[in-house]
């Protein structure tokens, strides 16, 4: 069995440890607690432990969620134990309640007698018993019984006044505890084995240990007593437990007005449609992106695509709804990253960033709890749409492979609708059938979503068409302008005005449905210019392409030259430079004057050796030495020159005499 400490119980039941110990003293946990040797710890060297099954079911579920992440670790889930007065029979409970009524009646009787001056409580009890027995001959009392009942509960608690004799084996089982624990280990797994297979595994273990166990029927009966919440978490996992056993919020939508709150989500349809890819038709399941008004359940927009939803689909579907029904005050969104794009429903009002759509439209943004279907009201609507609309098509796939129509495999390709055909019928069905059919949902009173929307539309928020057009555009992160403009999805956008923006960072706004033109804004969200998609030149450019490129280059040169200041012959001339030096000289003189206001004390640094040397070798002597050395160097060079000339003459004479001798 699983035993927990008072500290763990306080965390599970959200009460103090002192309150836990008081529950034990009052008998609220009955006998489902024990004291074990604490090796000197605890009170009197003993540690209090409480049986997990004595706690409320929500606390038990919380324990397994917190401490048993892997369901394989669930070793023991004891049979359901009844707590408090619930564990007794009807007759026992009735008798306990009658005793409680006696205590309440006596307390009032005693209070009145004390007011009248009677001081002896024993005498008061005797008077009360005499009065009671005369009025209730079918349920007479004795003085001993009254004393015993008052000792058990002075507050007239029926649970403590129940006659606990008999029913000693109530809630017990003939299954040995060890074998029941082993059975639960086998049975409470997500593989969901049968009771019979688990029983056989337990019987094998029991035979090996010489333990006698009852038949499989006893285990089947015991399984019925396991709380459903424990069965769910053990055999289906934590997600199923969260979806089916944990309480969820019930919202009152009558407090809302139309357009006060829109909810959005994506849906993958259980229908195959045809899409043309590279000249051939391919079967795909279309994705839909939807927005619904929470008060009226009217579907304000639905965008169908053959691609996985992204932020562009979110914006385009939202734009549909805004154009048709106005601007909502708040939105309730799925937790996907496509809804969390910085330029869409980000509530950050940081002035250093481009304002998001939510900030510009003054929208309150709320996100659903992740992986919680009940937190997204559109999930229920999608089931309705699937059952009422999808099943009209022959290419309906069913919600899973088990429910897939058998005739589908014999369906010819020509019998599948194209995406365009499905979209046309889908849009008409949403508008004409769903939005204009009586609704039996909460607070709808049999009216159509369209009627409820009109009745509860107190105000309709709108904006000028030009403003809406800019609001309902995507906004990029800051992008740096280069010589060919700006880049979005590997495509360049250029305008001749952008030559003055090269090197600067800008924001780019664009319509996801029309990317031929984009709008350029500075980092303060001020409009700068528009830019067109830049077409790439072919490998063999035409004359027109050359002309277009030449025109862009010419315009860029002209704009930059026009931005340059006019040339001035004075700037950069000798006179200009001299004037600058004269100005600098005047500034330096002014600095010297200001420095002389507070004269500086001059402190000489003396060095006798250097001073003696300076007297011995004055500057005149040094200059004369340098002149003498220079004269000597010139004389030496003259002598070297004369020697070279003499050597050259002798060498010439030698060659001339040798030449005459050879001729002879």
Strand fraction equals 5-15%
User: Helicity range of the residues?
Assistant: 40-55%
Question: In the CATH classification, which architecture of the domain at 253-455 applies?
Answer: 2-Layer Sandwich
Through-space gap between termini: 141 Å
Q: Could you name the ranges where pLDDT drops below 50 across 5 or more consecutive residues?
A: 68-83
CATH fold naming of the domain at 253-455: Nucleotidyltransferase, domain 5
Number of helices: 22
The CATH class assignment of the domain at 253-455 is: Alpha Beta
What does this structure look like?
By secondary structure, the protein is an alpha+beta fold. Among the domains are: about 1-55, Orthogonal Bundle (Arc Repressor Mutant, subunit A), CATH 1.10.10; about 85-160; about 255-455, Nucleotidyltransferase, domain 5; about 475-565, no CATH class. Helices cover about 45% and strands about 15% of the residues. It contains 22 helices and 17 strands. It has helices at about 5-15, 15-25, 55-65, 90-115, 120-135, 145-150, 160, 175-185, 195-210, 215-225, 230-235, 240-245, 310-325, 355-360, 380-390, 420-435, 450-455, 465-470, 545-565, 575-595, 610-615, 620-664, and strands at about 5, 35, 45-50, 260-270, 275, 280-285, 285-295, 300-305, 330-335, 365, 475, 480, 485-490, 490-495, 505-510, 515-520, 525-535. The strands form four sheets. Strands 11, 12, 13, 14, 15, 16 and 17 form a seven-stranded antiparallel sheet that branches. The radius of gyration is 49 Å and the shape is elongated. The termini are far apart. Residues about 70-85 have low confidence and may be disordered.
């Amino acid at each position: 069995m699983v035993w927990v400490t008072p500290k763990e119980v306080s965390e599970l039941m959200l009460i103090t440890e002192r309150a836990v110990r008081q529950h034990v003293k009052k008998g609220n946990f009955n006998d489902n607690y024990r004291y074990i040797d604490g090796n000197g710890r605890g009170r009197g060297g003993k540690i209090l432990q409480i049986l997990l099954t004595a706690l409320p079911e929500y606390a038990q579920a919380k324990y397994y969620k917190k401490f048993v992440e892997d369901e394989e670790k669930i070793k023991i889930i004891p049979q359901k134990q009844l707590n408090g007065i619930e564990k007794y029979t009807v007759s026992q409970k009735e008798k306990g309640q009658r005793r409680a009524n006696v205590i309440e009646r006596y307390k009032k009787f005693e209070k009145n007698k004390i007011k009248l001056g009677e001081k002896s409580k024993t005498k008061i009890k005797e008077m009360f018993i005499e009065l009671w027995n005369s009025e209730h001959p079918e349920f007479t009392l004795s003085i001993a019984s009254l004393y015993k009942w008052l000792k058990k509960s002075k507050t007239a608690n029926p649970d403590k006044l129940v006659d606990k004799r008999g029913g000693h084996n109530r809630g017990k089982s003939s299954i040995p505890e060890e074998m029941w624990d082993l059975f639960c280990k086998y049975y409470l797994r997500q593989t969901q084995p049968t009771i019979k297979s688990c029983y056989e595994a337990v019987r094998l273990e029991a035979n090996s240990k010489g333990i006698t166990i009852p038949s499989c029927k006893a285990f089947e009966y015991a399984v019925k007593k396991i709380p459903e919440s424990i069965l769910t978490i053990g055999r289906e996992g934590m997600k199923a437990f969260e979806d089916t056993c944990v309480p969820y919020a019930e919202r009152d939508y009558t407090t809302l007005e139309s357009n006060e709150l829109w909810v959005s989500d994506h849906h993958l349809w259980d229908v195959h449609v045809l899409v043309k890819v590279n000249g051939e038709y391919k079967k795909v399941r279309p994705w839909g992106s939807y927005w619904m008004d929470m008060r009226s359940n009217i579907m304000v927009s639905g965008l169908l695509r053959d691609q996985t939803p992204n932020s562009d689909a979110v914006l385009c579907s939202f734009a549909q709804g805004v154009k048709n029904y106005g601007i909502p005050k708040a939105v309730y969104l799925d937790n996907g990253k496509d809804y969390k794009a910085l330029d869409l429903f980000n509530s950050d009002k940081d002035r250093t960033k481009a304002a998001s759509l939510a900030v510009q439209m003054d929208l309150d943004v709320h996100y659903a709890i992740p992986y919680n279907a009940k937190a997204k009201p559109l999930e229920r609507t999608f089931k309705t749409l699937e059952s009422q609309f999808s099943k009209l098509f022959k290419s309906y796939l069913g919600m899973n492979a088990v429910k897939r129509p058998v005739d589908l495999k014999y369906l010819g390709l020509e019998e599948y609708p194209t995406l365009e055909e499905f979209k046309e019928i889908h849009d008409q069905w949403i508008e004409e059938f769903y939005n204009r059919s009586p609704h039996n949902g909460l607070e709808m009173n049999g009216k159509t979503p369209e009627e409820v929307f009109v009745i509860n539309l107190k105000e309709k928020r709108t904006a000028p068409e030009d403003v809406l057009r800019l609001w309902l555009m995507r906004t990029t992160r800051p992008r740096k302008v280069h010589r060919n403009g700006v880049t979005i999805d590997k495509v360049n956008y250029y305008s001749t005005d952008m030559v003055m923006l090269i090197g600067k960072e800008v924001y780019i706004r664009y319509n996801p449905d029309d990317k031929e033109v984009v709008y350029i804004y500075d980092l303060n969200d001020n409009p700068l210019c528009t830019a067109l998609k830049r077409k790439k030149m072919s490998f063999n450019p035409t004359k027109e392409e050359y002309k277009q490129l030449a025109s862009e280059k010419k315009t860029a040169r002209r704009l930059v030259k026009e931005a340059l200041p006019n040339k001035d012959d004075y700037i950069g001339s000798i006179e200009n430079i001299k004037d600058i030096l004269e100005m600098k000289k005047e500034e330096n003189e002014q600095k010297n004057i200001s420095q002389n206001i507070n004269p500086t004390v001059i402190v000489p640094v003396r060095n006798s050796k250097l001073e003696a040397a300076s007297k011995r070798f004055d500057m005149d002597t040094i200059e004369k030495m340098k002149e003498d050395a220079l004269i000597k160097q010139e004389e030496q060079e003259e002598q070297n020159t004369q020697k070279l000339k003499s050597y050259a003459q002798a060498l010439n004479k030698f060659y001339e005499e040798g030449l005459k001798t050879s001729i002879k």
